[in-house]
Amino acid sequence: MALRFPAARSCRIAILLTAITAVMPLPVLAQDPGTTPSKQQKKLPEAPAKLPKTGADRTRGLDFLFGALKAAPDEASAKHVEARIWALWMQTPSDTTALLMMRAKAAMDAQQMDVALKLLDAVVKLRPDYVEGWNRRATLYYLQNDYAHSLQDIEQVLVREPRHFGALAGLGMIMQDLGDEKRALDAFRKALALNPHLEKVPELVKTLTEKVEGRDI
Description:
Layout: H1 8-23, H2 38-41, H3 57-71, H4 75-90, H5 95-109, H6 113-126, H7 131-143, H8 147-160, H9 165-177, H10 181-194, H11 201-213
Helix pairs in contact: 1-8, 3-4, 5-6, 6-7, 7-8, 7-9, 8-9, 9-10, 10-11
C-alpha cells in the first residue's frame, strides 16, 4: 500500500529546488553525463554486490543494526553490519520489483541509462513505499547531473527512511557540486553520525569544516 504524506512535502521540494536555482542556472543541471568525470571519483555509497541473508535481522530490525554499526570495534565489523542494513533496505516482498531492480542495476552497469530510468520509473510507480527504488533512481539522476530530480528522489528516500546514510551522502555531494558548502557539510555530518565508517566522508567533513567554519586556533 502506498504511504500518504502531508502537503508540506511539496513545500520542502520547492525549497530544495529554489536552493538549486539560486546557486546555479537551471540549464547547468541537465549537463551531458560525459562532462563530469569527477562522478567516478565521488562514488555514492551503495549496497555491496553480495548481500547477506536477513532472516535474523527481520526480528531485531534496523534499530538494532544501527546501534551495532555505531558500536562496531573495527572496519571489518562495521562493513558486515552495514551490509546487513543494506540487505534490509533492498528487501522487497514483490518479485516483480526485485526483478525490475536487478535489471535496472544491470542497465546502469552497462551505461544504458535510458533503459535503467524506465525500469526505475516502473519500480517507484509499482511500489512507492519501497525506499531503494527512489534511492537507486536518485543515484541515476545524480550520475546524469540532473540534480533537480535527484534531490526530489532523495527527499522521498529520507521521508521514508531518515537514517539512510547513502541518500544523505548523496545530498551532500550534490550540494557540494552546487557550491553550497554549508548544506553539504550538514548532510555529510548527518550521514557520518549514522554510519561513522563511510568511506571518504570523514575527509569531506574535515575539509568542509575548515572552509565553512574556519580552522581551530
